[in-house]
Structures are given as structure tokens and as C-alpha cells.
Amino acid sequence: MRSTAPGLRARDEAATLHVDGRALAVRIGDTVAAALVDAGELVCRVTRLGEPRGIFCGMGVCHDCVMLVDGVPLRTCMTPVRGGMHVEVEADARSPQALEVQLDRVELAPQVLVIGAGPGGLAAAAAAGEAGAEVLLVDERPKLGGQYFKQPSDGFDVDEHAIDRQYRQGRELIERVERACVTVLKGAQVWAAAGPRELLAIGDGHAYALRPQRLVLATGAYERAVPLPGWTLPGFMATGAAQTMMRAYQVLPGRRVLVSGNGPLNIQVAAELTRAGATVVAVCETARATSPARAPALAAMAAAAPDLLRDGIAYTRTLHAA
Ligand code: FES
């Protein structure tokens, strides 16, 4: 099921993805994972114990979304769809096969290498570029912005005046990076240190040897899930993954959703799900309700970040009204 956030208009660019031999019409700009969730195809792989797994973290960390994409095991949450792709559920029980993949070797030696293009990495790259350094910014996602400033995929036209503040702030930071003439490498994963001054990355058919003079690691954070019975079942996903489905691809992660855990992102995502047409059956928050004794801390928070407080009130109102 698709939704459309204010300021976004889907382009009519479709392609065909073959999933276990079945043809699926998908939207160009989606990742394979987003296209599968939209189609209600939740199983990506089957473990050696015969347990099905699906998209969980949505940010390249858990590897539960690995499928065979044109014969190569890839994380589908990081893999953009291409017309004619063949995708298969990966069964871990099958005998491992050696893969021979031809990669072009590229050597890069920037003055400053920034790994990670979320808010921290973008700000660091922009500042270094503005100071005159030759900067290379590397991120494994197809779009800059990271988890917090995740941007709409290339499947959408964007009305800059109608999108929400979070999209806009991210775009302003990305534009700053572009103005600072930072070289950007998207869809490339830094996977090893080959020595004290050499990092290895892979992406888009290239094997990169990166030899920077200075290194900034801005790899961000990922959610810590609490194991519960059934937590590995396909359809159970981290809040960040659910939000990526909606904000980047305008795909609803489900029609009836339970949001559980701790932190403000859960309330934001629950409100976004509600606005997008899903039924949020409950938001279960592990933190205690704020007591009157916390009033001074609340006042300090309101003074320091009034926008965040306003956002929080709006999310809560949306949920109460639903
Ligand atoms: S690595 Fe793709 S869902 Fe976790």
C-alpha cells in the first residue's frame, strides 16, 4: 500500500521485478525491499533452522533482508530496483557457492574522507569543504541524508515549498555539501581497513581503495531491539525501518500496526502511519509518564528546542484524534 506525503508526486516510472519467478510491477526509485513490502512479500530469506526472516533494520545492519539478486546475495534494503532484476528468497541451507564478481579497482586519496552522510557526516563534509579541503563523502545508501534526514527516492518529484521541515532541513544540508564541492560516493559500503591508512569500499561494480589524509567517521546509530517471542517474524521491523519505508519510498509497512518501545521516534512514526492511512492499534511506551516534578526539565527543553516540542505536541494530537 502506498501513501503520498505533502510535496511529493510519484513519477510514472515502472519496471518489472521477477520474484521467485513471479513478475511484479515496481516503481523505479524503490529499493528491492520497499517494492517487496509494497507488494506484501515479506519473506526475504530462510535460516538453516527453517525460520523465515524479513526486513528488520531497514538500514543495512541486520542482514535479514539478504536475497539473491541476479544470483548475488545482497541486502535488499540497500539495493535499488532495476527493470528485469531476478530476486529469490535466500535459503541458508543451500550449499554455499563461490561467487566470482568482476570489480573495477579505483584508488582515491582525498585530503578528508567522511564516512556516513547523515546529519553529522553531511555537516562535517560541508565544513571541511567550505574550509578549502578536498573532501570525499561516502555513504552506502542510494540517497544522502542518513536515517534522520532520509530523503524521498528518485521516484518522486519534490515541491520544495510543500515538503515538511525534516525533509527541508536535510535538503539544505545536502545543498551545502554540493556548494562546498564535496565529492560524493553513494551506494558504496566501506567494509574493511587494509592498513593504518587504507580503507576498502565496494559499490556499483567498483572496489575502492581509499587513502585519506584525515578521516571522519560519522556512521550514526542503529536501534537496539528487545527480543520478544516472534520478534524475528517477517513483518516485525524496527521503527526506523518502518519510517524509511514511508519517508523514502511512500510505502506503508502495514495496515494495522503496533508501535512499541522507547523514544520520540516511535510517536513520530505512529503519527506518520496514522496520517498515511494505517491503523495504529497501540503505541506502547516503556518510559514512565512525565511527572509534575519534571516541570523544570520540560521548561528547559521547550526553551532549547521549541520546534521539537511543537512537533511532539502535533504527533500526540494526531494520535489522540485517531
Ligand atoms: S540489512 Fe536490510 S533490513 Fe537489515
Overview of this protein structure:
The chain is α/β, with parallel strands linked by helices and 322 residues long. It folds into three domains: 8-91, 2Fe-2S iron-sulphur cluster binding domain, sarcosine oxidase, alpha subunit, N-terminal domain (Ubiquitin-like (UB roll)); 104-217, FAD/NAD(P)-binding domain, CATH 3.50.50; 255-321, no CATH class. It contains seven helices and 19 strands. It has helices at 32-38, 119-130, 165-179, 239-249, 264-275, 295-304, 306-321, and strands at 8-10, 14-19, 22-27, 45-46, 52-53, 66-69, 72-75, 86-91, 104-108, 112-115, 135-139, 156-158, 183-186, 189-195, 198-203, 206-210, 214-217, 256-261, 279-285. Strands 2, 3, 4, 5, 6, 7 and 8 form a seven-stranded mixed β-sheet that branches. It has a four-stranded mixed β-sheet with strand order 9-16-15-14, with no helix packed on it. Strands 13-11-10-17 form a four-stranded parallel β-sheet, covered by helices on one side. β6 (66-69) and β7 form a beta hairpin. α6 crosses α7. The longest helix is centred in the last third of the chain and has 16 residues, at 306-321. The mean pLDDT is 92. Bound molecules: FE2/S2 (inorganic) cluster. FE2/S2 (inorganic) cluster (FES) binds next to loops.
Topology:
Blueprint: E1 8-10, E2 14-19, E3 22-27, H1 32-38, E4 45-46, E5 52-53, E6 66-69, E7 72-75, E8 86-91, E9 104-108, E10 112-115, H2 119-130, E11 135-139, E12 156-158, H3 165-179, E13 183-186, E14 189-195, E15 198-203, E16 206-210, E17 214-217, H4 239-249, E18 256-261, H5 264-275, E19 279-285, H6 295-304, H7 306-321
